[in-house]
Amino acid sequence: MGQLNCFIGQFVTDLGAAVHTGMVVIGEKLGLYKALAGKAMTSAQLATKTNTDERYLREWLASQAAGGYITYDAKSDKFSLNDVQALTLATEDSPAYLPGAFELALGSLAAVPRIAESFRTGAGMGWHEHADGVFHGCEKFFRPGYVANLVSAWIPALDGVKEKLEAGARVADVGCGKGASTLLMAKAFPKSQFFGFDYHDKSIEAARESAKREGVAGRMSFEVSSAKDFPGKDYDFVAVFDCLHDMGDPIGAAAHVRSSVARDGVWMIVEPFANDHLKDNLNPVGRVYYSFSTLLCTPCSRSQEVGLCLGAQAGEARIREVVTSAGFTRFRRAAETPFNLVYEVRP
């Protein structure tokens, strides 16, 4: 009975977390966390401030307090965010902003009926076929990690790359999505030129709008193009963020990068953190990535030519094999975080 009760306790925790996903998305969408960040309020006060229905809001607040995402004071009957809650739930430019992960999860789950059928047929599902929440949530999910690490840690970990970017370099961001990573680099290195490529037209449209809004459109361009045929030669720096494993033919994509990068150029590959063996990935981070891989990454790869299906937990040895098969001769792990591995690749 002890083991059964323990497992049921885990089930209750997981079920609460599953439905909590929708609660976080609602809170972010309606600005509820941001409204609570500066001042403790009753449900009625928050309803007035956010122009929402108090009865719905009262139920939402209770769910958030039960989950530890909002702080409740029983004496005053008021709700608030402490410093950590505000940093992670209400501060969009924070390196620890979390709501995007929940939006990505909720959008991914919309595909469950189709993915379940794919288990029988082996059919793929293209990235572009998912709900819009996948695209919006993906940017919000990955951007905080890029804000925290890309300019301050990852690029400096690559031999001589920061200096090249500061002096003025040609940079290709392949699989750039809505351009979060491209924009961060463009702002940090104003002397360089940036070219973002992605096969998803709606993401490229959003990236162009962001570049205009951020005032850097004159130093960068975004084009609809796949990783195997993006234009341009002699790039000093090519970056691929969290998408090599999604590609149907990552070896073919790597070969195209090899033909596009300058002789003394560098290719930076950012991938989800993973060990090489399954037994070493059976942990909370691995659980997240294997689940996303089932819903997003593997079907995306399966929908393309070759369909290699590396998966989000490919690991360093598998990525090295892909890169060296394409003709690169130098490969090393340059940096890591609990969520990402960063590789430096040279011709």
From TrEMBL:
One of its GO terms (molecular function) is methyltransferase activity. Signal peptide: none annotated. Keywords: Methyltransferase, Transferase. Residues 166-281 form the Methyltransferase domain. Residues 23-89 form the S-adenosylmethionine-dependent methyltransferase Rv2258c-like winged HTH domain. One of its GO terms (biological process) is methylation. Coiled coil: none annotated. It comes from the Bacteria. The keyword Thylakoid does not apply. It holds the Pfam family WHD_Rv2258c. The keyword Methyltransferase applies. Gene3D superfamilies: Vaccinia Virus protein VP39 (3.40.50.150), Winged helix-like DNA-binding domain superfamily/Winged helix DNA-binding domain (1.10.10.10). This is Class I SAM-dependent methyltransferase. It comes from Alloacidobacterium dinghuense. The lineage of its organism: Bacteria, Pseudomonadati, Acidobacteriota, Terriglobia, Terriglobales.
